[in-house]
Amino acid sequence: MTHLQAGLSPETLEKARLELNENPDTLHQDIQEVRDMVITRPDIGFLRTDDAFILRFLRARKFQHFEAFRLLAQYFEYRQQNLDMFKSFKATDPGIKQALKDGFPGGLANLDHYGRKILVLFAANWDQSRYTLVDILRAILLSLEAMIEDPELQVNGFVLIIDWSNFTFKQASKLTPSMLRLAIEGLQDSFPARFGGIHFVNQPWYIHALYTVIRPFLKEKTRKRIFLHGNNLNSLHQLIHPEILPSEFGGMLPPYDMGTWARTLLDHEYDDDSEFSADSYNTSSKDTEKDLSPKSMKRSQSVVDPGVLKRVDKHEEENMQPLLSLD
């Protein structure tokens, strides 16, 4: 075991060896091979290429050197293409702070039986008057940056549960194709995290429709890990034990405290709202949402047409339930 594996338990070390092809004898060589590829992309500013940083990308791509480098390049390229998103990329940024305090995202105290961190989102908590969807995405990315520092989570990964209860059609209409694409690029294509499952619960019909919009942009592996449970929490409990879930998900624990993760990031600044003002929201977050990603905006500038939402194909809905994939 090298010093780069010092934060891993014996069980996780064995998991890294078996599932991710991580070999302590060749670890430094693996890292150097990825680092040597940086010169092939002079158009990208690689702001970090230290051993510990590159290692998380290798783990995210099961030590396939080229795939790890491609993810590393996309990580920095995404940040170059969306500079406004990362100008004030900190927990105390007004938009990010408000999103965090409303539970975007939340994190459960207990890991699942695979050692994965369980993230939760309660979609209806979104207060459109105080922060944008871009702020929510920024808060999620910032949270993942903090969590991925834990080497155990680099190996074991994450699970995401999204509760769509009381999420209105008006709110859903704000999920434009360009916004959805921006989120997919940031989370699926450009971040070194392993997502073992994405679970939708209590989703209305128009969320089914939105899923058909984003499905072509999802990798096959991602599609297989999205589970649409609807109101059937028993199917959720087959994958995540109710003993570690809050009551909102039919679990045995008390209701989730939306400020739990925000307090971890913000600490003593959690109760200080002096940085927030209507002007700061209007002049920064809304401008960012208008700009979005240049690459994304070229692909699509239209909002989701309510008429499209109404034309959800029943056959499509029936085929949205994926096969279980936990590898």
UniProtKB/TrEMBL annotation:
Superkingdom of source: Eukaryota
GO molecular function annotation: phosphatidylinositol bisphosphate binding
Domain CRAL-TRIO: 96-257
Biased composition (Basic and acidic residues): 308-318
Membrane topology, record value: Peripheral membrane protein
Keyword tags: Cytoplasmic vesicle, Endosome, Golgi apparatus, Lipid-binding, Membrane
Transmembrane parts of this sequence: none
Alphabetical GO biological process terms: lysosome organization
Gene Ontology CC terms: clathrin-coated vesicle; early endosome membrane; trans-Golgi network
Cellular location(s): Cytoplasmic vesicle, Clathrin-coated vesicle; Early endosome membrane; Golgi apparatus, trans-Golgi network membrane
A Pfam cross-reference name: CRAL_TRIO_N
Residue span of region Disordered: 275-327
Residue ranges that the Swiss-Prot or TrEMBL entry lists as coiled coil: none
Main location: cytoplasm
Protein function: Required for normal morphology of late endosomes and/or lysosomes in neurons. Binds phosphatidylinositol 3,5-bisphosphate (PtdIns(3,5)P2).
Subunit annotation: Forms a complex with clathrin heavy chain and gamma-adaptin.
Protein name as catalogued: Clavesin-2
Organism: Alligator sinensis (Chinese alligator)
Gene coding for it: CLVS2
